[in-house]
Task: structure prediction
Amino acid sequence: MNQNLVNSLIENLNHDNVNTRLESLQELQKLIEAGQLERPQPGGFVNNHIHTTYSFSPYSPTKAVWMAYNAGLTTAGIMDHDSISGAKEFIEAGKIVGIATTIGVECRADFSATPLNGKRINNPDQKSIAYVALHGVPHTQIDKVDAYFAPYREKRNERNQAMTARINELLADHGVELDFAADIVPLSRAREGGSITERHILFALSMKLIERFGRGQKLVDFLKQDLKLEFSSKLEGYLLDENNPHYTYDLLGVLKGDLVEAFYLPAAEECPPIEDVVKLADEVGCILAYAYLGDVGDSVTGDKKAQKFEDDYLDLLFDVITDLGFKAVTYMPSRNTLDQLLRLKSLCKKHNLFEISGEDINTPRQSFICEALTRLEFHNLIDSTWALIGHELAATENLDNGLFTAATTAKYPSLEERIQVYKKIGQGK
Result:
């Protein structure tokens, strides 16, 4: 086997051209079929929350599928911020390697007109604004969903440029300056319908800081002494290691954890009212899920400070999302304590809400595998993933065939029964 060829093909999975990405994946799969490359062994794991370069991630949709496939995932789900533009590529990549896929989009919504107004919900940066996820988007509705979010991406970029200017003011005396068009936009797929997030801004800033101070002690001293940032000894160790292959991402994590509040501007027009998002989900036949964060102790992603979120008023939150018309709750089992998760599951059962799992993949250090799924308490999340895939397939054929339509719920009133029926559809049985 020509290892240089394999390395080149893997590198091309992140190529700028989507056709090159998919063709490279096809060539890798041919090598697997020919026995020249080891076939990954599926481990029965699922992940419905994989970010790609259409929001912020080290991975294109094609590379994300390849990483999921090699990690042993049985299914993989794309979930980008304010963008569904990578979905078609993700679906095609899944077909190439034979892994089941599901597609969705994550957005921030304004809860100001609800009883959650003024509360810190699941957003570390802003009260009354919460992250929600639209799961299982029927493939016939991709373009409609994309068109819905396009103007919100434009509004977000207006704020992104203003925040970039604030960073430049903050660092004016330190020989560091960012140009939004030259330094930040090229890190994204904004010209192809992707979004630009705070992570793009901070990744560009990380690159500038490394260019200015180099890697190691000098940069750490600048962060601590000049910017007055506080970060864990673990992260400091990463930044002192000049040979760290994930250096820029680790620096981004430090900046996101403690610098954002210095330049953050409140999101307003880029966050649709939650009532509008509920309406969109109903119109396109997808499954709207609240993204549970829970009070944070030690951050899994390394960029969230210890902070309180929705746990103190979780009963109220469930009442609100149920009244609004949410159909599901999505959560990341590795992020929370068992007590938090068992309480969450109990409330999902009480309110008849569908449970969806996903590991928030946006840095190269994160594992695509959630070991918590091996616990008996979370086996239902594997069934629900196959049901989610079944919903997506059925609703793509006919929107009336979705998991939560009036016709389906009349035929199968029990959510548990529906999950088992749609699981079989997802598995092709």
Observations:
- The chain has 17 helices and seven strands.
- Strands lie at 45-50, 73-81, 100-110, 129-135, 287-291, 328-331, 354-357.
